[in-house]
Write a structure and sequence with these properties.
The protein is about 20% helix and about 35% strand. The protein contains seven helices and 20 strands. The strands form five sheets. Strands 1, 2, 3, 4, 5, 6, 17 and 20 form an eight-stranded mixed sheet that branches.
């Protein structure tokens, strides 16, 4: 049976979602998104970080103008995610590969986003490259009640020296009055090869699972969304075996996790490409109360990869890849080497 979604813009976003031919119901709809901002560094050398190795700091000329373009390009994408359906920018956005809170402040204060009045939640991570995760939210739609950062302790197998990587960010609050929790991730990279680095991402998944478990101890019906650049696909051990995320809603049991990104991956779709192969490292997953189909509270509607035409490389050997910001030692006036991902949440209104 065909589903149609027709939206009108009022003080909140309310749509008419046709479930049956003779039955029309009104829904609020909000977008939750995640975007890897690809090396969003400022132009100031921080002696406490290895930021001098960033593409921004490696530029020899015109650094300030390029930084402003990069910020504006990020704001353009963030303002656009989900807009075709929601008539609004996302209510919640998780981000990664940011240097500090100041670069996020510049993004949310860009003219394209300023009217949305985004708040920011950010902690400095111990990552050696100086990159962090963060969360921004429309203040009129989401009110944070608590937030915390959770450190992933990793050690080199041979030297036993600590490996410094990104923390995981937990933000709890009320979306249109409903309690929800959001976890923002950027798991360890595949440097050295997928198999050799696999244990690091398994450890990251275990930390993520502990955060989810701790929330479910307090409230077994907690609505939790975990999202991020996992540097793993939906079928890898970290997601499949540790988080035990399921492809089909019917397989999601009590306290279980649904991963709508698996279907995209099975169809050969991805959020980032390398050596003519697509990966879906950017994922958003939801706990079981989001898929109960009881639309008196916010429920999962659908997911997507935001891969609009302007985000694509139009020529050359990387034609069709995400149009990244930095390549061959210079600025391309592009966006990111990752596409954003998103989910829609809907709730029936009387």
């Amino acid at each position: 049976m065909k589903h149609l979604l027709k939206l009108t813009l009022t003080l909140s976003i309310i749509g008419v979602f046709t479930i049956h031919a003779q039955e029309k119901k009104k829904f609020k709809l909000h977008t939750v998104a995640f975007y890897n901002l690809e090396n969003l560094f400022d132009t100031i050398n921080d002696p406490e970080k290895n930021d001098e190795a960033s593409p921004m700091m490696e530029l020899n000329t015109n650094r300030s103008n390029i930084y402003n373009k990069k910020v504006h390009n990020m704001a353009r994408v963030l303002s656009d995610i989900g807009r075709d359906t929601s008539n609004n920018s996302p209510a919640i956005i998780g981000v990664s590969e940011i240097e500090n809170v100041e670069v996020l402040e510049d993004v949310v204060n860009d003219p394209l986003l300023l009217s949305k009045d985004y708040g920011i939640i950010h902690y400095d991570s111990p990552d050696r490259r100086g990159i962090d995760v963060g969360l921004i939210y429309q203040k009129r739609l989401f009110q944070p009640t608590s937030h915390s950062t959770h450190t992933l302790m990793l050690y080199d197998d041979q030297s036993r020296k600590r490996i410094y990587t990104r923390d995981q960010l937990l933000v709890s609050g009320k979306l249109d009055g409903e309690n929800m929790h959001f976890i923002v991730n950027h798991w360890p990279s595949r440097r050295g090869g997928e198999a050799r680095s696999r244990a690091k991402r398994v450890a990251a998944a275990k930390l993520n699972k502990r955060i989810i478990d701790s929330l479910q101890v307090i409230d077994p019906y907690a609505k939790i969304i975990t999202m991020g650049d996992l540097n793993d696909d939906p079928i890898n051990a970290s997601v499949k075996d540790i988080l035990k995320a399921k492809r089909k809603i019917k397989d999601v049991k009590f306290k279980g996790i649904y991963n709508p990104m698996i279907d995209f991956y099975k169809k050969g779709l991805g959020s980032n490409a390398y050596r003519d192969s697509w990966s879906l490292f950017d994922q958003i997953m939801l706990t079981q109360p989001f898929v109960e189909k009881d639309y008196k509270s916010f429920q999962f509607y659908k997911a997507g990869i935001f891969n609009k035409n302007y985000l694509l490389n139009k020529k050359g050997r990387y034609k069709g890849y995400p149009l990244r910001s930095f390549a061959d030692g210079g600025f391309t006036d592009g966006f990111s080497d990752h596409f954003p991902v998103y989910v829609y949440l809907i709730k029936e209104v009387k």
